[in-house]
Design a protein that fits this description.
By secondary structure, the protein is mainly alpha-helical. The chain contains eight helices and three strands; from the N terminus they run αββαβαααααα. It has helices spanning 3-10, 33-37, 58-62, 68-72, 79-93, 98-108, 128-132, 144-153; strands at residues 18-21, 28-30, 45-52.
């Protein structure tokens, strides 16, 4: 297996981001802009976690729809509740062996983005920490959906129960080659929205 294929395979699994709104009593608090501007690190602002997306495809694909609300309100270390659902998806829907499912979900859980700042930033990329002892994190250009689909459905890591070749339709790609607009060179780096 070539190094780029290994990178793509391991990159098929990654880690944490939470969407927030500013109206809840969930007890998760943080600084607000006014207090930070005034130099006061304390804050009484309380945030409501409305989305939990660490590793792409975990909640959207491997967690049953009826459990999405519970998953969106969970924390990265709630592995015991949700990892069995991911294993069941990989064995049941994708038709992969149990040992393969456990290997893939073992990289997806705990569901959080790992960054090792002691490694060179040039090694940044989705799951580079797991495959190549790299920086980790996630670049905007990382095709995490394709890599996740390749890990779950393709023959790249194992031919046992594979549904397709890496990057092949219908299950091993989302068929989206790149972002439709270039990313910015300034924070927050995202492309401008299409209205």
């Amino acid at each position: 297996m070539s190094k780029s294929m290994q990178w793509a395979a391991v990159a098929a699994l990654a880690l944490v981001a939470a969407g927030c709104a500013d109206t809840n009593t969930s007890g998760v608090s943080g600084p607000d802009a006014g207090m930070l501007a005034a130099g006061n690190p304390a804050s009484d602002v309380v945030y409501d976690q409305v989305e939990f997306l660490g590793n792409p495809l975990v909640s959207e694909v491997t967690i049953v729809k009826a459990q999405h609300e519970a998953y969106n309100r969970t924390q990265p270390y709630n592995t015991a509740t949700f990892r069995p659902q991911t294993d069941q998806f990989i064995t049941g829907v994708a038709g992969r062996p149990a040992a393969y499912a456990q290997t893939v979900s073992g990289v997806l859980y705990p569901d959080m983005l790992v960054v090792d700042a002691s490694k060179p930033a040039s090694t940044a990329g989705w799951l580079s920490w797991a495959l190549a002892e790299g920086y980790g994190g996630r670049k905007l250009t990382d095709d995490v959906v394709d890599v996740g689909l390749i890990a779950i459905f393709s023959s790249l890591l194992s031919p046992a129960g594979a549904s397709c070749a890496p990057g092949a339709l219908p299950l091993c790609t989302d068929n989206v080659g790149a972002n439709d607009k270039p990313f910015s060179n300034a924070f927050p780096y995202l492309a401008s929205p299409t209205l």
